[in-house]
Design brief:
Elements lengths: L7 E7 L13 E2 L2 E2 H12 L3 E6 L2 H4 L7 E5 L11 H11 L5 E4 L9 H11 L6 E8 L7 E4 L2 E4 L16 E12 H7 L7 E5 L11 H18 L1
Parallel strand pairs: 1-4, 1-6, 4-5, 7-11
Antiparallel strand pairs: 2-3, 6-10, 7-10, 8-9
Helix pairs in contact: 1-4
Length: 231
C-alpha cells in the first residue's frame, strides 16, 4: 500500500452567510457544530494542521485544539458568487501552507476519515495534480446537450443521445467532499482545472451535501441511525 504524504494540512472554508440555510456551518448536527464534523474527521485521518478560513466571529474566537487554527476570511471572499479557488488561494497564503493540502467542505458531514486517506493514497502515486472524491450519477446525462440558438450540441459522444440508457457507460460526479493537491501547484495556477485529475469513489450515502434545511435533516437522521446502530 502506498504511503500517504506526510505531513499534510486540511483547509476548511467557512462563511457566515448562507441563503439556503442561514447559520448552517455552526448549526448543531448530532450534538456538535456542523463544521466540527469536518475538523474531527480531518484529525482522525491524520492531519497535522487544520486551517479554518472563516468570517464567523464565534469560530474565530473559539478555544481550539493546538493543531487547529482559525484565520480571517476577508469579506470580499464571502459572497454567494465567490468561487472556491480564490478562497483557497487566500487561505494557503495567509496560513503559509506548503506541501500536500486537503480541502474539506464543512457541508459534507457524512465523509469518513477513510475517504480522506484513500484520496491521499491516490495522490501519493504522483500521477495526478489533483485528486477529488466522486459518487455515482445518472448515466442518462450522457444523452444531454446544450443549446446554440436552435441547434443541439451534445455534451459528449453524439451517439449516446440515441442509445439505450442501460448501454451507456457509468458516470460519476464530484461530490465536493475531498480535494487533495499540492499547495505550491495550486498557488501557481490558482485553479482546480487540470488534465491530471485522479478520483476516489464514495457511496451515495456518504456523499450527502448540506445546502437546505431538508438536507440538514436528512444528514441528521442518517447520523442518528449510525449512532443507534453502534450502541
Amino acid at each position: 500500500m502506498p504511503l500517504m504524504p506526510q505531513p499534510w494540512t486540511a483547509v476548511i472554508p467557512l462563511r457566515a452567510g448562507s441563503k439556503g440555510l442561514p447559520g448552517k456551518n455552526t448549526r448543531l448536527l448530532a450534538g456538535k457544530p456542523l463544521y466540527q464534523h469536518a475538523v474531527d474527521t480531518a484529525l482522525e485521518a491524520g492531519a497535522q494542521r487544520v486551517i479554518l478560513a472563516t468570517d464567523i466571529s464565534e469560530v474565530l474566537s473559539a478555544s481550539l485544539p493546538p493543531a487547529v487554527h482559525a484565520i480571517q476570511r476577508p469579506s470580499d471572499l464571502c459572497g454567494d458568487a465567490v468561487p472556491m479557488a480564490p478562497v483557497l488561494s487566500h487561505a494557503l497564503q495567509l496560513a503559509a501552507c506548503s506541501g500536500t493540502v486537503v480541502l474539506l467542505q464543512a457541508t459534507s458531514p457524512m465523509r469518513k476519515a477513510v475517504d480522506i486517506q484513500a484520496a491521499l493514497r491516490v495522490f501519493a502515486t504522483g500521477q495526478h495534480d489533483l485528486v477529488m472524491s466522486v459518487t455515482k450519477a445518472d448515466r442518462g446525462v450522457l444523452k444531454w446537450g446544450r443549446l446554440d440558438g436552435d441547434r443541439f450540441l451534445p455534451l459528449s459522444d453524439p451517439s449516446y443521445c440515441f442509445a439505450n440508457r442501460q448501454s451507456l457507460p457509468p458516470v460519476v460526479r464530484p461530490n465536493g467532499a475531498v480535494y487533495v493537491m499540492n499547495a505550491e501547484w495550486f498557488l501557481k495556477f490558482g485553479s482546480f482545472v487540470s488534465e491530471r485529475i485522479g478520483v476516489v469513489q464514495m457511496s451515495v450515502e456518504r456523499s450527502l451535501d448540506i445546502d437546505t434545511l431538508a438536507d440538514f435533516e436528512r444528514c441528521e437522521a442518517a447520523l442518528a441511525s449510525q449512532i443507534k446502530g453502534n450502541k
